[in-house]
Design a protein that fits this description.
The chain is an alpha/beta fold and 293 residues long. Helix content is 27%, strand content 28%. The chain has 10 helices and 15 strands.
Length: 293
């Protein structure tokens, strides 16, 4: 499992938009496609055409804005090949409409490249499946289960995903408040990737915007309680929101996240970084990305 982007809507060169790549056997599965996901795949020397399927947790822009780049750039000829088969996309209600309008928005580019570069139309075709939860994908020994989480009253459905392969499993929370459903579907999992959001008390006391944002996410203390109940072999923070809506008030730090989480959880924990990968086997191994010289 590789964290392509561990950030949030705020533009950051250190933390790109939310996106997680799960590699299991012959499957390369992408969960969300935030800002910069295509660049991160390129950094890893993973052919853009090699992504088997894409799964959206919900349709907030920071989770989908990188999709047109991956879709269209992966269709172009490169030294690593090009996609000649349709792209498979899974997501909540509204995903089909979004994909249809993207095809309309980029119709000039598609028409020109087919005529001028003789690119195959099949490679730019999108096959979209709207999901409602339950087992949504089974292929090559990989089973993906979608389940509802709680990202707020107007953001329904919002999904988390569990991926099972050869007796191993990982759970991806998506964006959520504390979710009993997530805790249920996370039982027995090896690694739980969970979102987190924090703001300082002085910011929360003076800013309705800060209260609204944090109210749609999981605080470090609450995430720690979730980890304590699930007892994964490893808990990993991603979609990390370190919030300040006031220039006079500093945002919490990663060290703050850790100290707040330790109030309610004492088990194995990593704060995700872009391009960090986690190998799930008899043991759990964390690899931190080192750029080549």
């Amino acid at each position: 499992v590789t964290l392509l982007g561990t950030g949030n809507p705020t533009p950051s060169i250190e933390r790109f938009g939310p996106s997680i790549l799960v590699e299991a056997g012959s499957e390369r599965l992408l969960f969300d496609c935030g800002r910069g996901a295509t660049i991160r795949l390129w950094q890893l020397h993973i052919p853009l055409s090699a992504v088997t399927a894409i799964f959206f947790t919900h349709l907030h822009s920071d989770h989908v804005v990188g999709f047109p780049d991956l879709w269209l750039t992966g269709w172009l000829p490169t030294a690593w090949g090009r996609r000649a088969e349709p792209m498979h996309v899974y997501g909540p209600i509204g995903t089909k409409k979004m994909m249809r309008h993207l095809e309309e928005a980029y119709q000039a580019d598609i028409r020109i490249r087919i005529a001028d570069e003789r690119l195959p139309r099949s490679g730019v075709t999108i096959i979209t499946t709207e999901i409602m939860g339950g087992v949504v994908y089974e292929k090559s020994g990989v089973k993906i289960t979608a389940f509802n989480v709680d990202h707020g009253e107007f953001i329904k459905p919002a999904f988390g995903y569990r991926v099972d392969y050869q007796g191993r499993s990982v759970v991806l929370s998506g964006d959520t408040r504390v979710s009993e459903n997530l805790i249920h579907f996370s039982q027995g999992t090896d690694v739980l990737f969970h979102e987190v959001a924090a703001a300082k008390l002085e910011n929360l006391s003076t800013s309705e915007a800060a209260r609204r944002i944090i109210g749609h996410h999981t605080t470090p203390e609450d995430a720690g309680s979730v980890f304590t109940r699930v007892k994964p072999k490893l808990a990993v923070y991603t979609h990390i929101v370190l919030l300040s809506t006031d220039l006079a008030i500093s945002a919490p730090t990663v060290e703050d996240l850790l100290s707040l989480t330790r109030k309610t959880y004492s088990g194995p924990l990593e704060v995700g970084r872009d391009l960090m990968s986690i190998e799930v086997g008899d043991t759990i191994t964390v690899h931190r990305f080192t750029a080549p010289p």
